Amino acid sequence: MIEPDTRPPLAKKRFGQNFLHDQNIIARIIHAISPKPGQALIEIGPGRGALTRPLLAAGEKLQVIELDRDLIPFLQAYCGNHPGLVVHQCDALKVDFPSLAPGQPLRVVGNLPYNISTPLLFHLLQFADHIRDMHFMLQKEVVDRMVAKPGGGDYGRLTVSLAARAECVSLFRVSPGAFHPAPKVYSAIVRLRPRPAPFPIPDFGAYDRIVTAAFGQRRKTLSNALKGLLDSEQIRAANIDPGLRAERLSAAEFGALSCQLVADTGPAQKPEPGAQ
């Protein structure tokens, strides 16, 4: 009788796979998430199951989304064919997340491929009303941008776009040696808690248009960067100096600019896509 091949699948570059193996880091992540039985736990990109098995042990039920079909048999075997494990072989960017656990607040976890991390964040935030929290492993530079303060080099479109939609907290960084194969960059664990904007935003389409235009040409002043949207007089009407550059403004001040835009021109027809 031929025994099944139980060797761990090799990482595939086209999927951006780097498999976590450091047990101390795994324990810290699980502690940060603090999964409990009865919660609607969803893991994106389980890979070889480094987080999947302890999440199952703590939460008893877990749904995972894995694009690489070759990983799934190994993952199921590694988790002992646990009856509480449900595997969805699909692209997370196309998933209607609320449909996975109707009526329950979702807790989403994942070691996200760096090449889709930002689009995936904004895809998930479309379902913010259905999500309790998210814990992700991301490239450290991305996390630094997510939690940056005005005036710093990391502060930009991603920071401001997320600030209107979620509370972001950087928890701890992870060295390349925690993965196999080791990436060339450091990673970090970030927690996102979706919440209503903490400042007035009459229309997210207008807000995203303002943010995109302001950071599209970082060296330009607001009066130049926002041409076609707001002129200097309108910027001053929002109590903001049109001679400032985008990186000097808080997210709340971008909210004030979006209020001005809506007051003068009406709501945007379509929201801008997720920030890069």
TrEMBL record:
Gene3D superfamilies: Ribosomal RNA adenine dimethylase-like, domain 2, Vaccinia Virus protein VP39. SMART domains: rADc. The keyword Nucleotidyltransferase does not apply. It is found in: Cytoplasm. The keyword Methyltransferase applies. S-adenosyl-L-methionine binds at residues 18, 20, 45, 66, 91, 111. InterPro entries: KsgA/Erm, rRNA_Ade_diMease-like_C, rRNA_Ade_Mease_Trfase_CS, rRNA_Ade_methylase_Trfase_N, rRNA_adenine_dimethylase, SAM-dependent_MTases_sf. Specifically dimethylates two adjacent adenosines (A1518 and A1519) in the loop of a conserved hairpin near the 3'-end of 16S rRNA in the 30S particle. May play a critical role in biogenesis of 30S subunits. Belongs to the class I-like SAM-binding methyltransferase superfamily. rRNA adenine N(6)-methyltransferase family. RsmA subfamily. This is Ribosomal RNA small subunit methyltransferase A. It comes from Banduia mediterranea. The lineage of its organism: Bacteria, Pseudomonadati, Pseudomonadota, Gammaproteobacteria, Nevskiales. The gene is rsmA.
